[in-house]
Amino acid sequence: MKLHRIVSLMLVLLFALCACAQAGAVTDSWSVDNAYVTLNEKTGVLVIQSREDGRYTLAAADGTPLTDPYLYMDANDTMFDVATEEGLNVFGMIDSTGKLVVPMQYGDTVCLSDRWQLGVVLEEATAENYDYKTFDGKTFYLISRYDVYYQGQKAGELGRLEYRNAYPYGAYLYVSDEERNYACYDSTMTASSYVPSFSGSSEYDETRDGVFHKGSGQQVGVPGCTLTSDDVEEDIFLIDGRFVDLQGNVTFAADAKYESIYDFEGDYAKVRMNGKYGLIDRTGREVMACEYDEITYGETYFEGGYQIAVKDGKVGFVNTSGETTCEFKYASNIVKSTYKMPMTHLADLDGSIIVLSGAAGELDKRFAEVRIANSNGCPLFAGEPEEKKAGVYTLFGEEIIPADGKFDDVYDLNISHDGSVVVGYDTDRKYHVYLIDTSAFAAAEPEKEAEAPAQEAGESAAEPEGWTCSCGSKNSGKFCPECGSPRPEQLKCAKCGFTPAEGTTPKFCSECGNAF
User: pLDDT tens-digit profile of 385-405?
Assistant: First the structure.
């Protein structure tokens, strides 16, 4: 059960800053000893709470206040819950600039995305039937309704049982109710006539033989589609052996040598051949050959410029040119995570910790403790080369905040997702904020191959790879010239996106077990 927030009356926030210049990648720093400083790792802004009166102020990384003091403030994904008074239904939400996006009239708030938020209206309830309770367990609250906000404006309402969770894609919201039924809404909370079976933004419709966007009802991958990549979960589709964009423009033909081609995650898609995996980019270029046991990702592939993979049971890294940058010699079962990029770590036989970096391979320095940033792609990590001495290091092992005893634990150092801000809590109970220039040690962008000239209007795209008819004839057209049988449709799993080898018609998906 969720817990109702309890706050006490606080006064005006006052805190003293002490600025000082730093050399190297640290471009500036400042300190505060009469306030608590919390870094919002996603946005890089700070919540500063006065130790004198307990009030909260939102501040930029350089210490510039972005708001007046609040009675209450707490990070909520990329937003912040705030209140100026005690009581029921007094909470609202501000964004990372300090702008109020949800008015302060709710018992709870939910950040679904930068565009979509929820305000939860609460009413008093009993111990026999409640959704929230106070920390002392004596007062109970029931959800009255959910107010839905889109870009700072109330768009509509949902009943207590109409919301369990939600998945936003641009200007569309996919909501699961308490019985796990889904409904699609646009930015005015107008419900789509499409009744989906899962939260993805688009799915293949057998009755209409096409891929349809569930929020707007539009067919995607055809001329006239008005959707943009911001509105959808996927913006490139495999149709009739070709990859097309939302408007049906052919980007490249699928290579028949692959046993399966998975959905694009960002700019790359996983492919499989002979039971091994590789990656292709949005032009069909094979960035990583199909020679890996597994290729995993967090939000997308090549986060931070490097891709972690498993080859012959060993973990290593590859860059976007397909070059091995960290040798594949570390057993996957002892590596801490095969999802982390652009670095991961493992314990050595003597108990020390080895850091594997996509940029520099195995770092020379060993650590007693390591804390990799919470977000994939961050080029920094906190490490203790000696116990009770923690510092911050780059992908290349460069020490940019020295482990000189000021910070005695890696968990006293918090790093923003992009590596531009570090907040440390020292042994004297003082907070230090460091501004970092990450350009000096960011992953180098490889030179891209020259793109093929764009297809002229009216010019036909290259024909997809040939197919073998059940009669044994090999063909390239839509119908077999020997027996007249139509070319088999390319199957795609509606649940995970797996595509079996062309011409095969399995009953179940080999990746997730879903029935075709």
Answer: 998 999 999 999 999 999 999
**Residue 447 pLDDT grade (very low, low, confident, very high; cuts 50, 70, 90):** very low
Q: List CB contacts of 210: < 8 A, sequence separation 6 or more.
A: 204, 219, 220, 221, 222
The conformation of residue 219, written as its DSSP 8-state character, comes to B
Is residue 233 very low, low, confident or very high in pLDDT (cuts 50, 70, 90)?
confident
Instruction: Tell me what the mean pLDDT of segment 496-512 comes to.
Output: 58
Q: Looking at 25-72, list the stretches that DSSP marks H as alpha helix, in order from N- to C-terminal side.
A: none
Counting Cβ atoms within 10 Å, is residue 277 exposed (0-12), middle (13-18) or buried (19+)?
Answer: buried
Residue located via tokens 């911001």: 230
Burial class (CB in 10 A: 0-12, 13-18, 19+), 250: middle
* Prediction pTM value: 0.79
Task: Please state, in angstroms and rounded to a whole number, the distance separating the CA atoms of residues 195 and 198.
Answer: 9
Q: Across the beta sheet with 260-265, what order do the strands follow?
A: 260-265, 268-273, 276-281, 286-292
**CA 380 to CA 389: how far, in whole Å?**
17
Beta carbons within 8 Å of 427's beta carbon, 6+ residues apart: 405, 406, 407, 408
* pLDDT in the model for residue 142: 96
β-pair type (268-273, 276-281): antiparallel
Of 290, 292, 296, which Cα lies nearest the Cα of 271? 290
Token pair belonging to 367: 């650590």
In three-state secondary structure terms, 343 is strand
Please report the pLDDT score of residue 49 as a whole number: 97
Range name among 322-326, 375-379, 399-403 with the lowest pLDDT average: 375-379
3-state helix, strand, coil split of the chain in percent (to 5) is 0, 45, 55
33 touches 168 (CB < 8 A): no
